[in-house]
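Input (structure):
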């Protein structure tokens, strides 16, 4: 039977029957065990670890629960945090352990995801690990830098502008304002370098100390206690002149003993330090030995004005005559000016005293004094009667008329035409020792060689007159008496008469024997 086709009178009864059947099935369903899905997803721990029987919603996490075995130990502030502070859903398996999953990354990913490098679990803003990590960078935190807030240097910037990574470590990148506003001294006007560490430390910006010894002008003596403005009052620091004159011009101009300006004393530092030091401008000491004219002998005791003009302090020449011209002109033994003595050098004198000159090196003049030439009482005027300059070294210049001498002989050299320029031909020993003019020996009889025997006789034995002997025939020159008995003589050489013997002696006679 089709329900819709039931007679109308039965329809209410059928509807009531259907309701009873539905209620019966509902009762049966309630009586059966219910299946409930795990709200914690794959988390399979015992429910009693967190829940109690009195109320399902009351959660009490037991002490036996080990959060660390799930990869995230609860330490520091995490141990006191509410579970739902990290577990935003009941499905604990979906929770993440990365710090950024709970904590907003203020570094915007520039420093990576390993927050533990700088932060600890005790507090997210714990400075100790942050400072320690900063020491590993190119800019370790020292002094007040260690107490500064991060944003003092890492100023907030737009995403992608690298607020933390690549921050400039140069002082001026943070302290440009202090550099530009500094007035004592004025950093900008003075051309100060932006390498602030030369003067400033990390303890305090206002407490600066500059080590002048690291510059090309170390501070010594009185300079070390002079205020900076004393030298840098003009505001010039970079490229400041290091010459003494740049600060001591007034001292230079006011100096009168000696007067620096009229004397054109040098104004460069090497010139000033020749007399002055950094301890005090006065007193000054000048070391003359550092000049081309060292002071020796009597010179160190002479007052400066003894050589230098007192008003101009002009530097005299190095020649002795620049100070000793009066001594030069007044010297009489010998007279220097008439004698033509050079006014440069004064080689006979020393610096101990002008008088008593004994230092003339005659050998250096090309004529060494030996023998009688050097024996007292020989006087300089014996040879230099007419002067000293260009005196001839030829023997005859002194020995023309001496006794013995060239003109007086013996033999009379001028009468026999001996060459006056060749005295040493015969007087070699005398020329070497200058001990005696006499005793000359003629070394080579060109026309009549001297051989052994009776011909080794004094010159005057054959040269009986002052005339030059040109004949050397034995009988005529020296052996006239030997001709007796030779007219006529006949031997192996032939027959000799008085007319032929004088030229034929050598046929029978030899110079080495008599007869």
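Output (sequence):
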């Amino acid at each position: 039977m089709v329900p819709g086709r039931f007679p109308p009178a039965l329809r209410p009864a059928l509807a009531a029957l259907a309701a009873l059947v539905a209620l019966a099935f509902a009762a049966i369903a309630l009586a059966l065990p219910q299946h409930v899905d795990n709200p914690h997803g794959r988390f399979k721990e015992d429910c009693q670890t967190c829940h109690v029987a009195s109320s399902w919603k009351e959660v009490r996490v037991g002490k036996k629960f080990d959060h660390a075995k799930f990869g995230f130990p609860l330490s520091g502030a995490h141990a006191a945090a509410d579970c739902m502070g990290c577990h935003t859903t009941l499905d604990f398996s979906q929770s993440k352990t990365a710090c950024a999953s709970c904590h907003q990354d203020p570094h915007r990913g520039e420093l990576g995801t390993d927050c533990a490098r700088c932060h600890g679990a005790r507090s997210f803003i714990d400075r100790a690990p942050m400072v320690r990590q900063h020491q590993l960078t190119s800019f370790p935190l020292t002094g007040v830098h260690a107490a500064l807030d991060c944003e003092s240097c890492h100023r907030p910037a737009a995403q992608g502008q690298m607020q933390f990574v690549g921050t400039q470590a140069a002082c001026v990148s943070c302290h440009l304002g202090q550099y530009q506003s500094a007035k004592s001294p004025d950093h900008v006007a003075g051309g100060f370098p932006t390498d602030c560490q030369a003067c400033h430390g990390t303890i305090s910006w206002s407490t600066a100390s500059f080590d002048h010894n690291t510059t090309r002008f170390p501070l010594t003596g009185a300079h070390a206690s002079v205020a900076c403005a004393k030298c840098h009052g003009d505001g010039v620091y970079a490229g400041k002149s290091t010459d003494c004159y740049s600060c001591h011009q007034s001292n230079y101009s006011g100096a009168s003993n000696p007067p620096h300006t009229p004397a054109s004393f040098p104004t460069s530092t090497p010139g000033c330090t020749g007399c002055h030091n950094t301890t005090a401008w006065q007193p000054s000491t000048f070391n003359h030995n550092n000049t081309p004219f060292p002071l020796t002998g009597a010179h160190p005791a002479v007052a400066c004005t003894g050589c230098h003009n007192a008003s101009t302090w002009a530097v005299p020449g190095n020649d002795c005559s620049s100070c000793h011209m009066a001594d030069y002109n007044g010297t009489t033994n010998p007279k220097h000016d008439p004698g033509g003595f050079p006014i440069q050098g004064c080689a006979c004198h020393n610096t101990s005293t002008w008088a008593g000159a004994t230092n003339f090196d005659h050998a250096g003049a090309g004529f060494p004094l030996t023998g009688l030439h050097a024996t007292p009482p020989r006087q300089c005027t014996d040879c230099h009667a007419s002067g000293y300059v260009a005196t001839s070294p030829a023997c005859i210049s002194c020995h023309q008329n001496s006794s013995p001498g060239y003109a007086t002989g013996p033999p009379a050299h001028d009468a026999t035409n001996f060459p006056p320029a060749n005295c040493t031909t015969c007087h070699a020993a005398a020329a070497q020792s200058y001990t005696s003019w006499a005793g000359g020996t003629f070394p080579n009889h060109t026309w009549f060689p001297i051989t052994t025997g009776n011909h080794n006789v004094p010159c005057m034995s054959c040269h009986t007159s002052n005339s030059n002997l040109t004949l050397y025939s034995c009988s005529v020159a020296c052996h006239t008496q030997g001709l007796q008995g030779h007219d006529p003589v006949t031997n192996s050489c032939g027959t000799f008469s008085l007319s032929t013997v004088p030229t034929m002696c050598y046929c029978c006679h030899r110079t080495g024997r008599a007869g």
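Notes: Strands lie at 51-52, 55-59, 489-491, 494-496. The mean pLDDT is 78.
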